[in-house]
């Protein structure tokens, strides 16, 4: 299941990390960082950070809504599907703006007996 969520969070988010992204008048090769661990409740936590274009200045709270596309060629379904998958397993997903460039997508999933199949 995690293999379905990570590509969505990295490839379909509004801050998608293209091979290169515009930063003012210069081209910048972005960085992607993935961290994982276990939180105080014993849930798996994963954070996917990039140095891409970041979250939209307006409407950042809408990025997980169906059909809310942030790219001209987008369908607005990638993050909606990601959220649906995670919630069906008892997890949750959210995004935060990074200081400087980019954004971080976080998700949690229960482990062990409390995980839903």
What is the CATH architecture annotation?
2-Layer Sandwich
Shape: globular
CATH topology: Heat Shock Protein 90
Main β-sheet, in a few words? 4 strands, antiparallel
What gap, in angstroms, lies between the N and C termini?
10 Å
Total of helices: 2
Q: Into which percent range does the helicity of residues fall?
A: 10-25%
Strand order of the largest sheet: 3-4-6-5
H and E string: HEEEEHEE
Query: So what's the CATH class?
Result: Alpha Beta
What's the Cα radius of gyration?
A: 15 Å
Strand content: 25-35%
Q: Could you name the ranges where pLDDT drops below 50 across 5 or more consecutive residues?
A: 12-20
Fourth-level CATH superfamily? Histidine kinase-like ATPase, C-terminal domain
Mean of pLDDT: 75
What is the number of E strands? 6
Number of domains as seen in the coordinates: 1
Which structural class should the secondary elements be placed in? alpha+beta
């Amino acid at each position: 299941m995690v293999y379905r969520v990570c590509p969505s969070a990295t490839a379909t988010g509004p801050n998608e990390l293209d091979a290169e992204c515009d930063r003012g008048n210069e081209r910048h090769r972005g960085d992607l960082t993935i961290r994982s661990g276990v939180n105080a409740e014993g849930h798996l936590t994963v954070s996917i950070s990039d140095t891409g274009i970041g979250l939209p200045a307006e409407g950042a709270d809408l990025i997980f809504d169906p059909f809310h596309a942030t790219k001209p060629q987008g369908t607005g379904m990638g993050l909606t599907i990601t959220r649906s998958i995670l919630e069906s397993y008892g997890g949750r997903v959210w995004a935060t703006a990074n200081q400087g460039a980019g954004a971080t997508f976080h998700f949690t999933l229960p482990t062990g007996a409390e995980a839903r199949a």
